[in-house]
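As noted in the main text, all predictions were made from sequence alone. Below is one such record, for MATE family efflux transporter.
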Amino acid sequence: MFDGAGEEPGSSAAARGAQAAGAGPRRILGIAVPTLGVLVAEPVYLLFDMAVVGRLGALALAGLAVGGLILAQVSSQLTFLSYGTTARAARRHGAGDVRGAVIEGAQASWLAVGVGSTIVLVVQVFAGPITRAIAGGGDIASAAESWVRIALFGVPLILLSMAGNGWMRGVQQTRRPLAYVLAGLVISAILCPTLVHGLLGAPRMELAGSAVANLMGQLVSGGLFVRALRRAQAPLAPHLTIMRAQLVLGRDLIVRSLAFQASFVSAAAVASRFGAASVAAHQLVLQIWNFLALTLDSLAIAAQTLVGAALGAGNARGAQGLARRITGWSTVFAVVLAAVFAAGYAVIPRLFTEDPSVLDRTHVVWWFFVAMIPVAGVVFALDGVLLGAGDAAFLRNATLGSALLGFLPMIWLSLAFDWGIGGIWTGLVAFMLLRVVAVGWRALSGRWARVGAEVPGRLS
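Prediction:
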């Protein structure tokens, strides 16, 4: 029997809606903090993996970088398995249908296995041409290909973990997913130096050892999420109607993700045209921005979970109040972060580099970065609200429109008129401002707050 759902089985829809909508700081942080742990655990492990492999030399590190890029690209586009499943499971949970919420997780897990297995087959066939296209052939491509061919078998397991995180967030279980993810990463962290460098009597596998360590950790995490599904005692058989509905929601989220990818890949390509110092500064500040985005995303996921539950319980007014409250807290938190980074203008960049030319370029974009942080506090929170409501089609259109009208034109104009990375980051600011206008208008309209256990197929 599934336990810890956060509701008494006999509680009324009104009580459940009031409970979700009235969530205070303790409950919101109880969702956000473990979620943040899940979000940052993988990036932290990747830094550790790079440090271990880096001791083998530049060739192995370059092979890992190319291979890791390929693995990330083939799996990161499928985040609907977590975000979309959270939206659907949260609605079910809010309506008191815990069994239905778990079924959403089971169907997302079937999709994870099916799509993940397809990715493994396709990329195994084309691994050679793909690595050569990215690395330009030679020894780097060969090293990357050997790593990718092993690591690819972890893709279905990565997607299973995404699906597991999705439905468990939906039923407001966030501590167990963190434990499952950490268990896998601990196994990987132990095996990585052991297999790469042949410690404790293990064979010295060098770069291949990194891939095997990743795979073993993913097997542990994926297996724990599957066990959680089995213990929930809900029907696990494939249900095509539910999977089709999940794919409709997933389609919108994939298109939105591709808009992000196109924009940031274009930005990196143009930054590289302005010289090594510019591209290094761009990537340095962008990595800090990405880490802050993960931090703010933890509150957005709390908003997604609780808003979905309130709407599932039929409490539209409570969901709107919750949206305002979490957005306010996220904005205040973001303002504090902006103040910290403004104060660290001269110090923080030096933690990453002492190169005078890179520091000079970093200081050019630093104030763009600081100015965007409070805007991000609003945008990310409202993204979570609208995802919780299943309003993925609007988010897709808002992201595409903001990229096409703001970010991409400024990126390419920067190249044409030699505006440098200041022009690129002006485009990123425009992107964020257009998004805050779009999601702010949508949130104020209230048109997203459709109640019921089912995520609406299309919102308009």
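The chain has 15 helices and no strands. Confidence is low (pLDDT under 50) at residues 1-10. These features were considered when defining construct boundaries for the mutagenesis experiments described in Section 2.9.
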